[in-house]
């Protein structure tokens, strides 16, 4: 039955992708669904985009091995990001009618800042796509006994196929069905699990103490809670909304739904300790529990749910990476017709998938790979984009300095405290994010003051 379920699922998402490809005639169709996505599609595609390998297998495994205090970034930071995005960012971004987050930088700070940001963001999308590939390999391995590499190849090929042919239309429509499968899969195992006796005590570890509060603690929350808002994957959905109001409401409702779904693997991770006392690979906790506790039918539903979570994130990051790679790096270099641009985008899908596949072969920890590869969104992009949304005439020099100084401050902190110093590398990565964003803000301030002083000096000559 499991093989039949997987075959049906793969045929379903591939068929939906091919069906959606009939709507794709222009770059706008491919990247932002011609800005026509309604609320009922926006909500599930926003949640499904972020609820992937790290949110289910990664969180459950991390809580099982390390406790709740290690998962501040997801689900809590991610839910905070969706809440803040809905209040402050979704509406203004939709009204700008652009295609990528880097377009915002190019429009306000010039082409150099656009290219710098594009190159800074590409590792995040390749890294996160690789994280989903690793999770797909683990899942296929435990349910079918296929080698992990073979599982990665099969599932990645399916994701590549429907994303490549249908773009945002295919990704968003399949996300609706994938979120339904995901919810069913999590419910199937949640009600079979014994509730952890120490749930209240574990949840209290999420709160800061004198010993734990510091740059690292704040960084865990804000690197995702603010930095993830700058992700092309999320902004692309705001830009695809039929209007600013739909974008705002979808993000706010998604924050609540994401938190609810995110708590499920957290609780499962705690409860799993009473069933498996020593798993060698913590990320295998969820599929191992399902295999032990569920009937063949229940296990099939669960496996399809986890598969849906991973694939929905993989397709979103693949499309987001393609958008930045083509719209902000390749297309500015040469003039192309609309048909040629679509072909280049589809070939870029293949190139990004191959890069992520190579990285996936060396990935060890799904959760860490996902979280830490997004640091550059926070330290280099958040400050200049936020200022561009709310300041009529932002400083071009300030924007460039903000990105450069933020990145430099982040790297410098990592080298001094994480490599040469005695700080734990994971803690250093989170703390470096706070250092980087502060440097980014200082960089913008210096550029703004310098530009203002020159303008005043010219006015008196």
Mean pLDDT reading? 86
Helices and strands, in N-to-C order? HHHHHHHHHHHHHHHHHHH
Low-confidence segments, ≥5 residues, pLDDT <50? none
The percent range for helix content is over 70%
Query: Number of DSSP helices?
Result: 19
Q: Beta-strand level of the residues, as a percent range? A: under 5%
- Shape by Cα distribution: globular
Tally of strands = 0
Q: Structural class from helices and strands?
A: mainly alpha
How far apart the termini lie comes to 82 Å
Largest sheet features: none
Radius of gyration: 22 Å
Walkthrough of the structure:
The chain has 461 residues and is mainly alpha-helical. Helices cover 79% and strands 0% of the residues. It is built from 19 helices and no strands. The protein has helices spanning 2-20, 27-32, 39-50, 54-66, 72-96, 101-109, 111-144, 148-190, 199-204, 215-225, 232-240, 244-271, 285-293, 296-330, 338-360, 366-372, 375-390, 396-419, 425-459. α5 (72-96) packs across α10 (215-225). It is globular and about 75 Å long. The N and C termini lie far apart (82 Å). The mean pLDDT is 86.
């Amino acid at each position: 039955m499991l093989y039949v379920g997987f075959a049906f699922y793969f045929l379903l998402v591939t068929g939906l992708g091919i069906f959606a490809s009939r709507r794709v005639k222009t770059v706008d169709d491919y990247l932002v669904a011609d800005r026509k996505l309604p609320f009922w599609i926006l909500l599930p595609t926003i949640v499904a985009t972020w609820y992937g390998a790290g949110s289910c297998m990664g969180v459950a495994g991390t809580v099982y091995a390390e406790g709740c205090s290690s998962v501040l970034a997801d689900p809590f930071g991610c839910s905070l990001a969706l809440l803040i995005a809905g209040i402050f960012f979704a509406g203004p971004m939709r009204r700008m009618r652009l295609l990528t987050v880097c377009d915002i930088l190019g429009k306000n700070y010039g082409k150099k800042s656009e290219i710098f940001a594009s190159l800074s963001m590409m590792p995040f999308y390749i890294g996160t796509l690789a994280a989903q590939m690793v999770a797909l390999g683990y899942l296929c391995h435990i349910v079918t006994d296929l080698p992990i590499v073979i599982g990665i190849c099969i599932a990645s090929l399916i994701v590549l196929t429907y994303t490549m042919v249908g773009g945002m239309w295919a990704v968003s429509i399949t996300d609706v069905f994938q979120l339904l499968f995901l919810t069913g899969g999590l419910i199937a195992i949640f009600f079979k699990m014994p509730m952890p006796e120490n749930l209240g005590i574990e949840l209290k570890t999420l709160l800061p103490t004198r010993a734990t509060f510091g740059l690292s603690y704040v960084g865990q929350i804000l690197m995702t809670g603010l930095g993830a808002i700058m992700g092309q994957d999320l902004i692309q959905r705001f830009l695809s909304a039929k209007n600013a109001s739909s974008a705002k409401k979808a993000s706010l409702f998604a924050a609540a739904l994401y938190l609810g779904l995110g708590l499920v693997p957290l609780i499962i991770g705690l409860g799993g300790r009473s069933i498996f006392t020593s798993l060698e690979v913590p990320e295998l906790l969820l599929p191992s529990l399902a295999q032990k506790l569920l009937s063949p039918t229940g296990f099939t539903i669960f496996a399809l749910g986890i598969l849906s979570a991973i694939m929905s994130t993989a397709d979103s990051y693949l499309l987001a990476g393609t958008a930045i790679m083509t719209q902000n790096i390749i297309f500015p270099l040469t003039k192309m017709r609309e048909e040629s641009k679509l072909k280049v985008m589809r070939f870029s899908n293949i190139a990004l998938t191959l890069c992520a596949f190579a990285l996936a072969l060396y990935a060890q920890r799904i959760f860490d790979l996902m979280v830490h590869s997004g640091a550059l969104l926070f330290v280099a992009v958040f400050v200049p984009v936020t200022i561009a949304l709310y300041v009529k005439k932002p400083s071009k020099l300030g924007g460039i300095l903000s990105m450069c100084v933020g990145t430099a401050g982040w790297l410098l902190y990592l080298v001094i405290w994480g490599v040469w110093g005695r700080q734990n590398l994971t803690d250093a990565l989170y703390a470096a994010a706070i250092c980087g964003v502060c440097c980014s803000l200082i960089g913008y301030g210096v550029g703004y003051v310098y530009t203002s002083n020159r303008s005043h000096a010219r006015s008196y000559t």
